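Give me the fold.
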Amino acid sequence: MHTLDPKGRIFLPAKWRDELAGEVVVTKGHERCLYVMTKERFEMRRTQLDQLSSNRKINRDHNRIFFSSGSEEPVDKSGRMSIPAGLRQYAGLEKDVVVIGVSDRAEIWDRSEWSAYQEGIHSYESLAEQLD
């Protein structure tokens, strides 16, 4: 568990500080979490999403929200970064937060939202069986 300070800053886990040093991109994620990724990974995601047909409204809507909410944030030498107020509001971040690693990104969750999400997953095994 991590704590958001009164200025909306958080310390990233020590094991990720080298990879996330310098500057990261924070944007809206799914299920009311925030995605944190290196600028390089964000550009890779941009390339993937650019492949979606802009003729489909759902693709346009997703990309508008994903990219317009993105914010480049510096990570200081101690591994601390700011989370913009609009993104904190979207994710319901107030004080206690959870930071998890998921493939190519970190996710920041409000602690109670993360707990509720986990409670909603009845069985990890049943999830695995439904994967494509």
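The chain has one domain: 2-130.
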